[in-house]
Amino acid sequence: MTTTSVHPAWLPTEAWRPIGTRRVRVDVTGTVRDEVRAACALHGGELVTTGEADLILRIGGADGYAITRERHVTTVSSATHAGLLHGLFATVRMGESAFVPGPRIDSAPAFARRMLDHWDNLDVHPVMGQVERGYAGGSLFWRAGALRTADLPRVRDYARLLASIGINAVALNNVNVHATEARLLTDRLPDLVTLADVFRPYAVRVHLAVTFAAPIVLGGLDTADPLDPAVRAWWSVTLAAVYERIPDFGGVLVKADSEGRPGPFAYGRTHADGANMLAEALAPHGGVVHWRAFVYNHRQDWRDRTTDRARAAYDHFAPLDGAFAGNVVLQVKHGPMDFQPREPISPVLAAMPRTRLAMELQITQEYTGQQRHVCYLAPMWSAVISGAPAARELAGVANTGDDPFWTGHPLAQANLYAFGRLAWDPSLAPETILDEWITLTFDPDDAAREALHAIMDESWRTYERYTAPLGVGFMVRPGHHYGPDVDGYEYTPWGTYHFADRDGVGVDRTVATGTGYTGLYPYPWNEIFESLADCPDELLLFMHHVPYTHVLRSGETVIQHIYDTHFAGVSEVEAMRERWQRIKIAPDVHARVSTLLDEQLRSAIEWRDQINTYFFRKSGIGDIRGRKIY
Amino acid sequence: MTTTSVHPAWLPTEAWRPIGTRRVRVDVTGTVRDEVRAACALHGGELVTTGEADLILRIGGADGYAITRERHVTTVSSATHAGLLHGLFATVRMGESAFVPGPRIDSAPAFARRMLDHWDNLDVHPVMGQVERGYAGGSLFWRAGALRTADLPRVRDYARLLASIGINAVALNNVNVHATEARLLTDRLPDLVTLADVFRPYAVRVHLAVTFAAPIVLGGLDTADPLDPAVRAWWSVTLAAVYERIPDFGGVLVKADSEGRPGPFAYGRTHADGANMLAEALAPHGGVVHWRAFVYNHRQDWRDRTTDRARAAYDHFAPLDGAFAGNVVLQVKHGPMDFQPREPISPVLAAMPRTRLAMELQITQEYTGQQRHVCYLAPMWSAVISGAPAARELAGVANTGDDPFWTGHPLAQANLYAFGRLAWDPSLAPETILDEWITLTFDPDDAAREALHAIMDESWRTYERYTAPLGVGFMVRPGHHYGPDVDGYEYTPWGTYHFADRDGVGVDRTVATGTGYTGLYPYPWNEIFESLADCPDELLLFMHHVPYTHVLRSGETVIQHIYDTHFAGVSEVEAMRERWQRIKIAPDVHARVSTLLDEQLRSAIEWRDQINTYFFRKSGIGDIRGRKIY
Lengths: 630, 630
What we know:
Two copies of one chain form a homodimer.
Chain A: E1 3-4, E2 22-27, H1 32-42, E3 55-59, E4 65-69, E5 74-78, H2 81-94, E6 102-107, E7 113-117, E8 120-125, E9 129-131, E10 142-143, E11 146-147, H3 152-164, E12 169-171, H4 179-182, H5 189-199, E13 205-209, H6 214-217, H7 229-245, E14 251-254, H8 271-282, E15 288-292, H9 309-317, E16 328-333, E17 356-362, H10 378-386, E18 393-397, H11 413-424, H12 430-442, H13 446-456, H14 459-466, E19 504-505, H15 525-530, H16 540-543, E20 546-547, H17 558-582, H18 587-619
Parallel strand pairs in A: 2-3, 3-5, 7-12, 7-18, 12-13, 13-14, 14-15, 15-16, 16-17, 17-18
Antiparallel strand pairs in A: 1-2, 4-5, 4-6, 8-9, 10-11, 19-20
């Protein structure tokens, strides 16, 4: 008779409440037995294979897990080691109710692969640093070119953290693969082996971002042409060598022909040619290719009104539907641009029924406050996931690092948590997920719980209110993307424009008079977006160029909506800050969040004033409520 | 009887034409004899102290030099080793005419100190690189933290280059003094000694940029308070140790209380307190303090219309007139902002009659095309020097580096050349100086000479035409400052605004309704700038906010002037490029400049289109000539 307390290290302070002391019995058979034993040991307990127990883990059942709660015993069953682990963590989330008799719970993940993509660099990049778009300190894996071997215990905690929310795949390096990163495929492979060994007990398979030019830069070939036999042979041999060392290697992730990365276009080949070559090399080993659809002309001429970056992924990839091998996963950003706080769902996600699609979300808050602003993203994700039923996998860009709170902003942990939970079960309501996270993280009293909900539930909509209006996007400082700069990208090659002049603002993407983007959607969305009357307000300026005096569906004019939402957004941040000041919570968390809320308020005011002043200077139309516009 | 050919290595190809073979006799007396002998040897010849000669160098005469040209002999006389050197180089410039009998030439420098300030970093700065605002490759002196000891022969060539144009002082490190640079005062002093030994034969004294916090960061004191006796003692002892190793050390250069640099404000002291403390430590050794007047609030709130960066240097320093020690040189940028292509002369230069003033020019083309654009700056400098007769020294921020052409753009050499020549004799016409440089560098035929003048003479005004209009300044990409971004600095803390709205543009700096800046000038300039009717067009938007329909003194409206100058500027660059394509010149120079002219044209078109579109979108007023505005 032994006891175990199983809890993920969600906070470094181990603030996630353990179940308590429960006797555990595990019924396992066959080869997975030792793995589960090891995994349970890592969780701080021991297996009990005979005798009395409060919790029985039993392998044998559906993919996913089942939990039966009888009078004296609760049983977790699964067909797989991974399912058993996830069931075990489910009992942690349930707390005492896991041990109260009740109906059988059957749970299976909605997305077969639930993947985190780390944009971690091995070498410190001169501009992007150790982690590209990272706001949580350094990399958990890499520091200044080397594997952080002394810090592998923290990686083990991290693997447990990911397993606890159902993540089962992780890419360990940046999709922008620089010189040193490229070598993880070959002479730096031992680093990957070491990390795979850490992740394996938690049923998290490791993937690797590779450069399409690897046959040249690593293999010494003079081409990377995907149809060249020598190139194909090089990939086969090289990847086979990876599988020799990492039999459960997940596969490769590729950003090709995008923002300067090499790709098949250099050889007059298609993306399908490129992806299928890799797929062929991986297929014998059960690996997959994640091929990113983030391909567009990043040297566009702002003077050219016919090119539309929003169309790019569709125009590049939709014609290739059906051309990709079965183990190619086309990884598509949820929106057509680049992780703005508000975008329509990418039309690619409805245009490729014969292609395996992953939807890519950005957990790291590049455009949503950079983990200095509270911005709980689950409401946005919940909407886009339900709007894109064709996606069969979910990938998220990680927001974690070696920060003591894992995510820089302590409340940004909720985004990681929510990503995992939505990837398992997208029908969960965002506020329910948040409530789980609050309970597990803080075990708060009612007042603190209420305050946390008041601060976080609507924080994404608050962020949207004080930043770029009505879906127009961008208006951030170029480069680092923090804070406002309305014209920052307006005359650049990046294809991210708002076209504001003294009369109006917005991008005409209609079929009738614009770039034709709205026509890429299936009915009824093509008609809804095309129609000025029917287009949802929050996407109006993404789809249409309108006068400042245009009246929204809400009944307000565009210009008055801009003023109103920006004043409202700042007021909401002020309210957040006041609530936080009164909350009772762990002192280190309280202090960190307090400092960050000061910055969020400063930044929100800056956004409000720049946006309002910009549009007042352009339109000449004052605020009907007479508030201060500089 | 020996011969000598004396020519500075102006181009790495030694393209500067040597005089030819001339017999040289040098009459020298006393202690300088050996130095001149050594200097002559470095120039590639030998002294001839007896017998026949075509050129006699004679020490004994005025400060500066005299050249007498008699039938059989030309004699150069000077009171000093330095004067003799400069006279010798004058004969190089004169070419054959130095040996044709003619009237005696007396020449003395207008500015006693003619100084180059290198913004070179020792360590590679993560943002600014090896050379801050450097566009000519790496540093001649430093690489990745270390002195380039293997490349000292090139430093020797560089010293000769500077001597050939009369430069007699050089600061060897960036005014933004980081950790490693600070140590040049103490344990890295041997590096400075090595460089001083290289510069000494060419009569160029070395100066050092120091951090005001040195007593803390190097001395281990807990304060840098300039009135603290321990601080004063530390500086005295430390600087005395420098003079022990470098007896002709020039002194220190300080950027204090500016853009985050430490300074006397932290201790409630004035800039005079700070500068005088250093002056006291330097005085026994004959050294000077160059104290920069570039002090302003770089965390301004763009919403605050009362703070005016243009006033800052005046407001900080004018009240201190008379308070500085005799060996303090207050180093004042030529304009009140920051080296824009067009600024009024800084009012500080007319406001401090009891202070020794240096005017600071920027030879490195931070805001004037970054050595990718042809922009011959002598016309601007000639005007600002003649407008500020109170300045007694001239300092220029160096545009040189380890690029094979010394200055990146081969034609940017003309700016370095002109800086030295104007510092010696500001009455020289810019086109005369350019002609000297063309002759010495290319020895071209008439067609090539004419083409070079056509390309370069007006190139600064061309640059002005296609960039920010009518003196308003900035409108560059933040950070790197290359290319247009009209609103790039508009909502930033840097104090550089244009206040364009749908009705008009410009900064109201009048006494009547604005910031009062115009009132800082002596009569008649205060009245001229204050008056909308009298203010020169080229400074109109620096002084006034006017409607787009305001009619300039030229008879055009502001908006039409913007369109016309921007179309004209691009046409002029096209003409430059065509002329260059036809010119006959050294192939390496031709190739480099051709590539750069392609970039200049691309950039000029980008400027034209962004500026025109920006103001068309704001004003709604079309071009009366119907040209394409995007």
